[in-house]
Specification:
Largest interface: A-B, 8 and 9 residues
Number of strands of chain B: 0
Shape of chain A: globular
Radius of gyration of chain A: 19 Å
CATH architecture of chain A: Orthogonal Bundle
CATH class of chain A: Mainly Alpha
Order of helices and strands of chain A: HHHHHEEHHHHHHHH
Strand order of the largest sheet of chain A: 1-2
CATH topology of chain A: Ammonium transporter fold
Distance between the termini of chain A: 14 Å
Helix content of chain A: 55-70%
Number of helices of chain A: 13
Strand content of chain B: under 5%
Radius of gyration of chain B: 17 Å
Number of strands of chain A: 2
Number of helices of chain B: 8
Strand content of chain A: under 5%
Oligomer: heterodimer
Number of domains of chain B: 1
Chain lengths: 308, 188
């Protein structure tokens, strides 16, 4: 028995590939992309293109330096990292900050740990945390849609002034915020596509959102507001479900999502920042190896859960 | 020649922070500016050199079983002296370094050298060992403090704790890379 090796790996293979999954996520992000260009204009498009191109460029350069073959999956995954990174910043971020952030995402958060499939932390969120710590003013100033005036996000308004936004505005995304997070409806269309095509597993976003609802009830917060506000939908469906940095086991995924929801609400209600999605996912990323190890789920053919 | 080699070892090939990975807490905590780094480096070097000399000179009369408490007393004595001198003559530096001056007592570099070197070798060798390792520590802290202070004006995160972790990680990686190149050029 001591020689028994437990692998959570695929024993049955199908035609699914990394680049295919990445393509599905890209397709799912198109509605949010269109919404961001409608609300924040061509500036948003410039930020997105800069970030995606520089991410791919850094990926190619680092693969060359590491003397690795450049595969389709590397290109598509780094482009997706760039897109997600651009989605969580404001539309007036200077281009050089976005290039530096792409470098942090690809070189530090991804390749310093061994490249695609080996990174502990979500590269886009790690880079976002880096630029949030470096340029706190730029990262907490937001533009109102259709206009060049600064405005606060609904979560900032709630935290600083106690004002709640109306649900329809938040659902459509017609309010200040980062490029890709504002439009709940566009993100939900994409999320539905991902769930239908089985690109992502429903467990992580489900337990994430359920925990946020439960925590809102316990803490006396407005449930619908908390669900629609900030980067929750973007984070729950597109970032927490990153196959590299989320658990592979089913019970691990439930716990992972619940932990993200718990930390998000703690930061939102009691923390110094108005939004906690980024940090909650990063913190839970760090415990993914533990979750995978201790919550392995029921092995086929066994009656009881195999909890080490 | 021998002296140069010892300094080379202290600063590069056996750098206490970047090669042996000791004293990381002090390195990360106080290097927010060049002057803090130099101050911390010199204070630690002072304690390191003098405790090495004292421990080496009494190494034959310390009973083996109580050598750790004896070392702690010697190191704590010099740390207290440094603490009081800094507070008396360099109040701003003393204020900036704060709790990390008393914490020199538990700096692993000093313990490591006392245990591994000073308790086995003669006084002058131990003095030299403290001097070179202290120089390595001071140079490293100066360098880290210089980079963090200059980058921190543009990129705020370099002044904050995450910047220290990132920078030390990069420097340790660079040292490993340099060592690999040296080994590749003249394989032993």
């Amino acid at each position: 028995m001591s020689k028994l090796i437990v692998t959570p790996a695929p024993h049955i293979k199908d035609s699914d590939t990394v680049s295919k999954q990445m393509r599905n996520v890209f397709i799912a992000l198109i509605p949010a992309l269109i919404a961001s260009v409608i609300f924040f204009g061509t500036n948003a498009l410039v930020v997105i293109i800069t970030t995606v191109l520089s991410s791919v460029l850094f990926e190619v350069i680092i693969l060359k330096i590491r003397k690795k073959a450049i595969k389709k999956s590397d290109i598509s995954s780094s482009a997706l990292t760039g897109l997600l990174l651009a989605f969580c910043v404001s539309s007036f971020m200077p281009w050089w900050i976005m290039i530096l952030a792409s470098f942090i995402a690809i070189a530090v958060a991804k390749h310093a740990f061994g490249g695609l499939g080996f990174n502990i932390f979500n590269p886009a969120l790690a880079a976002r945390a880096f630029i949030l710590a470096s340029w706190p003013v730029l990262m907490t100033t937001w533009l109102a849609p259709y206009a060049a005036i600064t405005s606060a996000t609904p979560l900032e308004l709630l935290k600083e002034n106690g004002i709640s936004a109306d649900y329809l505005t938040m659902f459509i995304g017609n309010h200040a915020g980062s490029i890709g997070e504002t439009s709940a409806i566009a993100l939900l269309i994409g999320a539905l596509y991902l769930l239908v095509t089985r690109t992502i597993d429903f467990r992580v976003p489900a337990s994430y959102l359920i925990t946020v609802v439960a925590m809102s009830l316990v803490m006396g917060q407005d449930i619908v507001f908390q669900l629609l506000a900030g980067g929750l939908i973007l984070g729950a469906f597109f970032m927490a479900t990153d196959p590299v940095t989320s658990p592979v086991t089913k019970p691990g995924r439930w716990v992972f999502g619940a932990g993200c929801g718990f930390i998000t609400m703690i930061i939102r209600v009691w923390g110094g920042y108005p939004e906690g999605v980024c940090y909650s996912i990063l913190i839970m990323n760090a415990v993914v190896p533990l979750l995978d190890r201790y919550l392995q789920g029921r092995i086929f053919g066994c009656k009881r859960w195999n909890v080490v | 020649m021998n002296l140069l080699k010892e300094f080379y070892k202290g600063i590069f090939s056996e750098n206490p922070v970047l090669r042996i990975l000791l004293g990381l807490c002090a390195t990360m905590a106080v290097t927010t500016s060049l002057i803090n780094g130099v101050g911390m480096g010199l204070a630690t070097s002072f304690v390191l050199i003098l405790s090495n000399v004292i421990i080496s000179s009494i190494r034959k009369i310390i009973p083996d079983k109580v050598r750790i408490p004896v070392m702690i007393i010697v190191i704590a004595t010099f740390t207290t002296i440094v603490d009081l001198i800094l507070a008396a003559y360099f109040p701003p530096l003393s204020k900036a370094l704060g709790i990390f001056i008393p914490l020199i007592v538990v700096n692993c570099i000093i313990f490591g050298r006392a245990e591994a070197f000073a308790s086995r070798y003669p006084v002058f060798d131990s003095f030299l060992d403290g001097l070179t390792k202290g120089a390595g520590f001071t140079v490293t802290l100066m360098f880290v403090g210089f980079i963090r202070e200059s980058l921190g004006r543009q990129v705020l995160v370099m002044i904050l704790p995450p910047g220290a972790f990132l920078l030390i990680g990069f420097l340790v990686g660079a040292m490993n890379l340099i060592e690999r190149w040296q080994k590749g050029l003249n394989p032993r």
